[in-house]
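Q: Is it fine to ask for two folds in a single conversation?
A: Yes, each is treated on its own. Send the first.
Q: Here.
A: Result:
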Amino acid sequence: MIKRTIAITTPCHLSLKLGQMLVRSKLIEGDAGKTVPIEDMGLLLMEHEQVTVTQGLLAKLLEHNVAVVNCDEKHHPAGMLLNFVGHSTQTETFIAQAEAPKPLKKQLWQQVVKAKIGNQAAVLDAMGQDGGRLQKLAQEVRSGDSDNREGAAAVYYWPRAFKRIPDFLRDPAGPYPNNLLNYGYAILRATMARALAGSGLHPTLGLFHRNRYNAYCLADDMMEPYRPLVDHVVAGIVQDRPLDRSELDQEDKITLLRTPTLDVDMGGKKRPLMVAVSETTASLARAFLGSGTALALPKPA
């Protein structure tokens, strides 16, 4: 079942009523509100600064492994709450993850980078660009990506993925359409972090990313092969609108909030992205626990 992504974009009060989330508008006096079944939710974004939420609701959301994302004054995702008691063998998996030998982590990272570059190639092919160079780089990825084929691929990929933007460079703090990519990646990151928690893994203990200030290093690692799917969506937005309209508007957000429902190919079978990431994280948990090293990784559907 595909879990719903709920975005609260206006002043609202969120509370718990009969086991469901009650959403009441602060703009309508005496608003009776609407209820949303918590068991149907996968991701809750609280975008407006005047959203308030009760502790009882937060506890129930976490109990059902709903990722709760807070946004900043620019309406960009800034923080996240995750459930850490949703897996029956979580302690065992945490220990296996923390004690994973370096050669295993390098082998897993090789698979992640290879899949990412292959998906970047597929995106370019779908846009009428030549992805052949990236397919060659993907085949050259070694254990731990010791030759940094990921970086070489990025140099080739970004100017072609956004050919309409002169001299485009991927920079989270950079100009349009980096703002669209940031928003889409934030949705993807929350989706991946939620799946990691559901598989009994700790999102801080990464394979490659090791920033001491980053609480989601593993989520950043494992979302890499999925990033090109977001890139393709953003490239479509850029292609269909005037370049002088560079703000992230409500229409863009609605489009990017559908990221968890994007179709991906997992081993020749079509899956919604939210389901696919759970297969990816489950395969990672199995690798840490010694039950095979092959990761379930996506291709564009």
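Q: Second one now.
A: Result:
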Amino acid sequence: MNVLVLFAHPRIDRSEVNVVLARTATAIDGVTLVDLYAEYPTFEIDVEREQHRLADYDVIVFQHPVYWYSCPALLKEWMDLVLEHGFAYGEGGTALEGKVMFNAVTAGARREVYSHDGGYSYELKDFFVPFEQSARLCRMRYLPPFALYAAGHARDEDRLDDHVNAYTALLSALVEDRFDIDQAESGGGVSGGLDELIVAEVE
């Protein structure tokens, strides 16, 4: 499958983790990364260009930091403009039907904070219901977020390399059609138990 990573980070110069994950994605054959803030610094999105771009990909990944329990502004603007009626949904809007979408995110808070008993009272996937519903409206398959929690501490705590390796494995498995999308879609997502979701190569 062809994988498109739409990367949205308004302050890449201050990024400790996302810039590493972006480099990781660009190094994988079959994955195309688009830096939205580099391409559209004034938010003037070329809607026709973006819609044509989507036609070439089977998997759409939104890679971004978690900003106020959601995504950076440009990614929301991209969704508002590009996912038009008649293109992505509604009468004749079948361009994205069957494609896979998920968020690959970095969160500032630790995993236990994103829980019903934690400080935020909800799981991270609960905050991302608007993305899930958008995918469903567009007849896409939505997978729960692939997340790195407490991202600002990941390097010091020696967790960054493991996450980079997991991201590489995930994207590579998607490209090679070795990822169990059915199980990921119906289960807990792609962050936990990743090994169980990647199908071994056929000899």
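Q: Anything structural to flag on that second result?
A: Two points. The chain has a mean pLDDT of 93. The domain at 3-197 is CATH 3.40.50.360 (Rossmann fold).
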